[in-house]
Amino acid sequence: QVQLVESGGGFVQAGGSLRLSCAASGSIFSINTMGWYRQAPGKQRELVAYITSGRNTNYADSVKGRFTISRDNAKKTVYLQMNSLKPEDTAVYYCNLYTVSPGGIRYDYWGQGTQVTVSS
Q1: Burial group, residue 48, by CB count within 10 angstroms (0-12, 13-18, 19+)
Q2: Of 36, 100, 101, 117, which residue is the least packed, with the fewest Cβ within 10 Å?
Q3: Cα separation, 13 vs 43, whole angstroms
């Protein structure tokens, strides 16, 4: 079974930085996409960034230029470096892994979430 474990969340002042990590365990297809989503209370969950196994990346407009997603395939870990944090970045951040097997079976895994709080 695949499990995702997040770490690095916490409290930071506006303008500060934080680095989130998500370590995957279990059997994972080499072709996959890992990403970070976030959800604030009363709001819909939204994509923050994703990175493919080929290291193509995509970012939400609200975080472009401030956040950087990366991955270490040997460690099966994805990172989110968050700089110039703003109070509106406050949310629970979830790690996601998505893949499709050669037989066409879809797999979608989620971490437990880690709280990020940015104060003004």
Answers
A1: buried
A2: 101
A3: 22
Q: Tens digit of pLDDT for each residue in 20-57? A: 999 999 988 888 999 999 999 999 999 999 999 999 99
For residues 38 and 94, the answer to whether their CB atoms sit within 8 Å is: yes
Q: Which two tokens stand for residue 108?
A: 């979608």
Give the span between the Cα atoms of 60 and 89, in whole angstroms: 12
All residues at 6 or more sequence positions from 105 whose CB lies less than 8 Å from its CB, including other chains: none
CA distances from 77 to 19, 34, 43, 72, 113 (A): 13, 9, 27, 5, 15
* Rounded mean pLDDT, 79-98: 98
**Tokens (6 digits) for 26:** 């279990």
- Beta-carbon contacts of 80 under 8 Å, excluding residues fewer than 6 positions away, are 19, 20, 36, 48, 49, 67, 68, 69, 93
Token code pair at residue 70: 């990366």
